[in-house]
Amino acid sequence: IFKKGVFLTLCGIFEYVESGPMGAEELAFRFAVNTINRNRTLLPNTTLTYDTQKINLYDSFEASKKACDQLSLGVAAIFGPSHSSSANAVQSICNALGVPHIQTRWKHQVSDNKDSFYVSLYPDFSSLSRAILDLVQFFKWKTVTVVYDDSTGLIRLQELIKAPSRYNLRLKIRQLPADTKDAKPLLKEMKRGKEFHVIFDCSHEMAAGILKQALAMGMMTEYYHYIFTTLDLFALDVEPYRYSGVNMTGFRILNTENTQVSSIIEKWSMERLQAPPKPDSGLLDGFMTFHSCCPGWSAMLTTTSASRVQEILLPQPPE
Asked: CA-CA distance, 202 to 275, in Å (whole number)?
């Protein structure tokens, strides 16, 4: 008796730093594939295999070569890479060949985007920007300081940046220092200017460092209210600031009350796949960040769709 089965190969292209540990996205990608294979009810008669390729940061030529090599082997989909130049190169190839390209990090999409085989699990930047503007209006802020890490932050926050022309809002824009983690000179200027309502657009790792420096600067009192655009604010250890009086607002997309989500987070924490943060980093150990969980969701989404298509195309077993 012939037993029908589907074998799907997924490719992950991940950037790496020489002699550095395996990144959270690659760990989550492997974790997701293994989890799906262990649960035979999730994708019955389907077995996943994966091949991970590593490239140097911002090396679009190497990313293109890896993508072409993997596509010649018949992979069902490609995940990553994350950084824009490399991601754009892979995206162009996948779109030309009709192969799904999955991204888990923010990427600016132009209005005439024709990449029909590209899927991003990161929330649309305009939706997040409107949500932040809604928060500012809800809090009835009249003056706001926006502190951003790089120029993409200005794109992500464009709804807020355009607000002064439509609302009675005074906006001040500042940039974090690019060549150092020392934000104290910037914080000192903000303290002198009595800038109490601040929106930080930066990674959660950088946010942890900023909060520690703000505490040392006496800027964690009830007069201050900080909004963080990172979706991983809950990965920060905020216990040192619990009784400081400061107000902090953030966003979270993971619904930890959902049984399936909580189960995955628990498995991630128990297996402790990710290296623990440094003791002085201000981050929680074993916390699954938004960027970590995205590869798992996208793997499940892609394999479910692809397996259904391939099951239809498989020859029927003989009578």
From this structure: 22
